[in-house]
């Protein structure tokens, strides 16, 4: 895989931004409120598919090897057992999907909305599985929606709109 010098510089900077946004946390139960989703939107709506994929993949790998870069400064292989880790996995998939949809000509808000739905689905399924099979604290899908999706819809919509406005401005500034 060939990367330009600019990409080799930009990807670590994007990861650093995502790390900073992940440290801004308001605990709300098994799924904390963070600014990570804003970072996902910003990066995925702004950068090309390859950069988006590698930014989120490397972010995830760095966290899994032990760097304290996930929500609230957590990290390490034990993060796989966190009910919220499905959202981290979802960053790779939904972020890449958003970038692909953007590349195919979808409106940025539509691409972001589809990506957000995919993120919620992945995060919800992962959370329910961890709660059921690892923590032995089963939760119904309806309860899961109430905990991991519904409280976040409005804040995430605002994050999407904010990222959209910023990306539109960034795109005007680029040569």
Quick structural summary:
It is built from 7 helices and 2 strands, in the order αββαααααα. The protein is mainly α and 175 residues long.
CATH fold-level topology: Arp2/3 complex 21 kDa subunit ARPC3
Spatial extent as radius of gyration: 16 Å
CATH class: Mainly Alpha
List the secondary-structure elements in sequence, H or E. HEEHHHHHH
Transmembrane segments: 12-45, 52-71, 83-101, 108-135, 147-167
Protein name: Biotin transporter
GO molecular function, one term: biotin transmembrane transporter activity
InterPro entries: BioY (IPR003784)
Task: Give an overview in words.
- This protein is an all-alpha fold and 175 residues long.
- It has one domain: Arp2/3 complex 21 kDa subunit ARPC3 (Orthogonal Bundle).
- The chain is 70% helix and 2% strand.
- The protein has helices at residues 5-22, 36-46, 49-64, 85-103, 108-134, 141-148, 150-173; strands at 25-26, 33-34.
- The chain has a two-stranded antiparallel sheet with strand order 1-2.
- A hairpin with a 6-residue loop joins strand 1 and strand 2.
- Helix 2 (36-46) packs parallel to helix 4 (85-103), helix 5 crosses helix 6 (141-148) and helix 5 (108-134) packs antiparallel against helix 7.
- It is globular.
- It starts with a helix and ends with a helix.
């Amino acid at each position: 895989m060939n990367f330009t010098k600019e990409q080799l510089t930009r990807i670590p900077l994007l990861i650093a931004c995502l790390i900073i946004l992940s440290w801004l946390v308001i605990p709300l139960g098994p799924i904390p409120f963070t600014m990570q989703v804003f970072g996902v939107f910003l990066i995925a709506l702004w950068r090309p598919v390859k950069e988006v994929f590698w930014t989120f993949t490397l972010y995830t790998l760095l966290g899994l090897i032990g760097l304290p870069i996930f929500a609230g400064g957590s990290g390490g292989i034990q993060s796989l057992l966190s009910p919220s880790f499905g959202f981290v996995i979802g960053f790779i998939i939904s972020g890449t999907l958003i970038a692909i949809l953007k590349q195919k000509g979808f409106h940025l808000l539509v691409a972001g909305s589809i990506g957000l739905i995919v993120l919620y689905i992945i995060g919800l399924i992962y959370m329910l599985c961890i709660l059921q099979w690892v923590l032995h604290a089963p939760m119904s899908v309806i309860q899961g929606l109430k905990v991991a999706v519904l409280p976040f819809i409005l804040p995430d919509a605002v994050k999407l709109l904010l990222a959209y406005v910023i990306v539109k401005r960034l795109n005007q500034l680029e040569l």
